[in-house]
Every structure is written in C-alpha cells, then in structure tokens.
Amino acid sequence: MGHDAPLFYEDPVELVRGDGVWLEAADGTRYLDLYNNVPCVGHANPRVAAAIAEQAATLNVHSRYLHANVVDYTERLVGLHHDGIESVILACSGSEATEMALTMARSLTGKKGVICTDATYHGNTSLVSKLTGLPVGTDRDGVRSISTPQMYRPLANGLTEAELCQRYLDQLAATIAQFEADGLGFAGIMLCSILANEGLPTAPGGWFTEATEMVRDAGGFVIADEVQAGFARSGNWWGYDTSGFTPDIVCMGKPMGNGLPVSGMAASHDMITSFRGKQRYFNTFAASPLQAAAGMAVIDEITDRDLVASVASVGAALKTSLLALQASQARMGDVRGHGLFIGIDWVVPGTNEPDVDGAAAMVEALKARCMLLGKAGQHGNVLKIRPPLVFQQDHAD
Amino acid sequence: MGHDAPLFYEDPVELVRGDGVWLEAADGTRYLDLYNNVPCVGHANPRVAAAIAEQAATLNVHSRYLHANVVDYTERLVGLHHDGIESVILACSGSEATEMALTMARSLTGKKGVICTDATYHGNTSLVSKLTGLPVGTDRDGVRSISTPQMYRPLANGLTEAELCQRYLDQLAATIAQFEADGLGFAGIMLCSILANEGLPTAPGGWFTEATEMVRDAGGFVIADEVQAGFARSGNWWGYDTSGFTPDIVCMGKPMGNGLPVSGMAASHDMITSFRGKQRYFNTFAASPLQAAAGMAVIDEITDRDLVASVASVGAALKTSLLALQASQARMGDVRGHGLFIGIDWVVPGTNEPDVDGAAAMVEALKARCMLLGKAGQHGNVLKIRPPLVFQQDHAD
Asked: Is there a single domain that holds both residue B271 and residue B340?
C-alpha cells in the first residue's frame, strides 16, 4: 500500500471480519460501524457473498461478449431512476463514473465550463480532481466553483431564507454568464445530490430545484453525483429525490456492489449513444458478469428488505434523538442530513465556529466506546454518521 | 451497457460459463479461448473463486483500516519485481494505475513532457487517453510520441539493424531535447514493455535498453506499462525482463485478480512516499481484503503451477508451429511476440502492406471453427493470440 498510506485513527484499527453493522478487530473488539456506506446491505452480506461466489466459479469476462445477467442488471438499474435515465455505462470506481460524466457533458455541449461547489470532492483522476477544494473566483482549466449553499454558515447574514437562496442563485447565474463571456461556454454543473463532502449542509429551500432549472435553461447538463447519495442512503432511492431535482446525468458508485468495485454513469439513450459515437470507451473489468451478480444482489437486498423505508424511519428517529441531545450539548452546533447520513457540526460553544480538534477527539472517543465514525465537511468538523443501511433502531439505542 | 456498446463479432457471442481455456456459449458451443488475458489462471479458476468467496463472506472494507492480508499481498507483489520496486499503490483499473504513474512522474520531476509511442493505448481517462493514437510531431498537452520501434515496417529502409536502432534513438533524443527547448522539461516515457497495442513489433536489438538509459540520463522516469505484459504473459514474470530494461515505475492491471478489478502502480519507497506527500490519493475499492484475496490466489496459481516456465515453453512451441505455417501462407507477413502473446501480421501477399479486412475475416473464420481471438496493432491487422496462461501444448494441437 506504500508508506504513508492514509489510515484512520491515531492507533489504527486492524480488522478481521464483519457481520451486518458490526466489525471485529484483530484484538477481539467488536465495533458498531457508523461509518461505512460501501457495504450498504451489511458487512459480509450472505446474499451478495453467495452471488459473487457463484459467479466467480462460473464465468467472469469483459463486456465485448454478451451476457444475459449484465443486460438484466443494467436494465434493472436504470429502471430505478426517473424516466429520463435510460442507459448506463458501467465502470469500476466512482472516479471513472464522474470522469465519464464530465467528459460527456463537455463532449455533447461542445462547451468547456463546469461548475461545482467550493467544498466538494468528486474523485481522484486528473480531470475530476480539478473539482476538489476549488475556491470561488478561481478557474481551473474550465472548472469554477460556487459557494456551497447553506443555512448554517450562510453567504451573508441577516437575510430571509428566500433572499439567501436568491443570493446563491445569483452567484450561479453570474458564474454561468462569465463562462459565456470568457468564450468557454457552459457544459453543466456537477453536484453531490445531498452535498455530502460539503458536510451535508441544509441548502435554502428551493435551491436545488431552481439552480438545476437555471443550469438547464442555460444549456448545461445537470450531473448528479450519487456515489455517496444513492442506493437508499438518504431515505429515498436517490439523493436527487430527497433534494428535489431531476438530473440529466447520474454517477453511481460506492454501495453498488457492496464492496466489489462497480460504478456507473447513466443518462438518456440519446446522450449515451451520442457519447459512444464520439468517444471510445472500454473498461476491461466493467459490465462483467461478476459486477452484475453483485449489483443485482444488492438491489435485491435493498428491495426485499425494504431498506428505503427502513433507512427513512430509522434515520429520522436517530436524527430526532440527536436533536434532543443537541439541547444539552452546546458543541453540537447543527444536526442535519437525510436518512442514514447525518452530520453533526461540531463547534465552539455559543458560536458557529468549527471545532476541528473537538470533532477529531470525538471520533477517537467514540472509537474507545467501540463505535466507528468519521468527520468531513467544508471545515473538517462535521461528524458523519453513515452506517450500513441495515442499521436498525436497536443499534441506535 | 448503453446502446452501441462495442461488441466483438458480426454476430456477437453470448457466453454462459467458462472453464480453464474454454468458454461455453448460450447455444452450447464450446470455444477455445485464444484471446483473454484477464482470466490468466483460467476461467472460473477454482482457487481464485474460492478465495473470493471466502473473503466476500468474511470482510471487505476500504484501506483506511489495517488488514493483514492486504499488507501481505502488497509485499509479495512488489517482491516479484526487481529490487528497485519496493512499494505499490493499489487501484481498480489499469487506467487508474497509468494515471497515477503519469501524475507521479510529473509531480516528482516537476516537469511536464511525457513520451509514448505513436500507436499505443494506455487507458481511458482524460489524462491517459492523451497518449492514444498520437501522431509523431504533435503535442497533446505535454505529451508527444515517437515512432514505434520495429523491424518489420521500419522508419527507414536499407539500414542495418544497428543503424535502424540508432535512428529510433535519435528520434527519442530529439523529442526529449525539444521538450527542454520548449520549456516543458521532460518527465519520462511510458511504454508497454512488449509493445502490445502497437502489435507486438520486434524492436531493433538493444532499443529498449538504450532508450530507457537515455530517458534516465535525461532525468526522466521510465514507466513500464505491464497491464498486458505482466504476470508471466511474455514467458517471464514481467515484460521488462523479456525486453531487457529496468523501469522506475511499473503499472499493473488486467490479470492481477483473474477478472476481479485490481490494478497497481509501483515504484521505490522514496518515490511512493514522496508522491503521497504531494498528492492526496484514496481509492474506495482498492487495497481491500477482497482484492488481496484474489490477487494472492493468482500469484499462488502462477507460482505453484510453474506457469512462467509453462508459458515460455508452450508459447515457444506455438510460435515455432506458426513460423512453419508461415512458409506456406503468404498472408502471414510476420510472426512475432513473446510467450503466450503472439502476433501474426496479416498482409497482402508479397508485400508488407496491412490487410485489415483479411485479418478481420480470419477472426470470424476462426470463430466459426470455435476459436476466439482478436486483432490489434498499429494498423489493426495483427491477429493476436493471447490465451489464458494455463494454455497447454494439447490445446495448441
């Protein structure tokens, strides 16, 4: 893995096995996993493990031969989306999906300008990493950012929610206009549907709907990054359902294969066909029978165990408990999020000033109490609670 | 998979299962697989399938916790390389590995100029695809190409092999010098160690050794793309052993997990540590226990079944048979390659003019005789014979 490979915790955890929402360390400690979104239907999920085992023992080849399960899987996958999402190109990592989405948006519009928020992360490739930590007002090879829309640390104080929303929308409009003025043109916006890396801020009401309409009116594509937001995480199948907008392009990843590398980029038939016509794209390991087997088992589990509803109710109850706790804990500046993705904005009491060290100490303290979680957000001070979707009320208790 | 997903054959093959070097179609036809390098230790290899099954049923998480098998696997993997390769960063796809390698070469040298051949393919990301089909004399954002070194269709006629080698080396020297003259500086060269996508041309003797020494003397890194060349394919563990050079950076992919997505980029400890210090890199699905389990089983199979020696001897015998056949088949312009990666340059009889349609017809004709192979090369006319490594003499017969 290389020296200096990034590890969690001052004293890293060595894991040996997992089961549902539990992780067992080499020293025998059993941790409640409040962190991992990839093993969405539970660590070592038996149905997914069996599907992988059977397919690995039968056949696993690339996608230039036909395989019935791959066709079935891709059809089922796009069927989970709104009607405009009709076709998907599978890949292995989320970065490959976001890379394809940006490339497609630029290719189909013939324009270069891409907008993201100023506190995001959409992947690790040379192209996609241009969107990482990009301050407002700077241009990175045709990528520019807007301020992350949020109620808790707003762009300006003293405004009504509607006025604040308009302020954020005005900034978006100006950014689009500047792309046109600079001759780059506007290709689209890429947004995590629930602003996960931004720290799950609550955007002013209506922002997602109005911002995405503005993008489309300007001829740009709306790209929803559902790598973290998707697959029931927010209490709906997709984060865009929760946030109230309709994307043209969707990127999926992390939970798709419960840990087996699978990702995908989906859009309308016309868009995908046109993209394929312009751009050679082949991915050796993608659209394989193994990916299809794992992916189908994940969808089966989410569906058969009714995890969308479960996430919504368990998540709502958890958030209610945390909001109650907030009343007596002044460091919990803001409790927010959707479904089983909840953020606690850890602050200096009496202010909304981020307390990064305090959040880090909480992560370590909870580890000592056998609970694994992490921190994220624009300032790195947001405790993120994001357990496998099979997390239940008794785990919360 | 999207409409217009690229498929092989006029009437694509629908596969249902595999076993060793055999693939079975939905219509019951059993094909001898002369094409697939990814399932290197055989389709549905029992040891790999069992390792994947066991690990999927036990634990599969990302690399920010420790896992003993991941450490063991990465140590074993780098131990298969020359002494200067000490540390590896795992990823999912070959493109992610080559992307990291280029980024690292540029980051550590602080220079931009990258050289590749004019008939190569190293991956599908925005950065790496700049190396695809790049004509000599053009600049693509700091990437420039040299003519593919080859004896069969040489850069100039009437030269001795040594003179031809020098001509190719002179072109490389001029390309490096031009990068310096243009103020871009020189970061390194990326080469498939056996020039696979170029059509496996035989380079003039000494070219690899002298070219890579020239690169290093000029301060650039030598990046070996072993995604196709590695893991015993050429009759040695690594293509660079076969071609006779010592890379600073190695990219690995396709066969690593026998079809499970695994790839890696390896170099010295110092280089990897320095790269990690400069660049955030995290890959959700990579360096996972599942990758380690599959990867370790593949190495075990290659080692325990002595596939390096087997590939060398079976491949040599196959090549000898094909060379004998060439005497009576004027369309077989050149038979070349290493180990179980053999190319047949299909030509208009009496010339070295590529016969692309003839090669395509041969691929279809061999399918009708229940053999799957493909074509590749600079002109798309090279039949490539590249079966799983477990291919034996009786399969060849």
From this structure: no
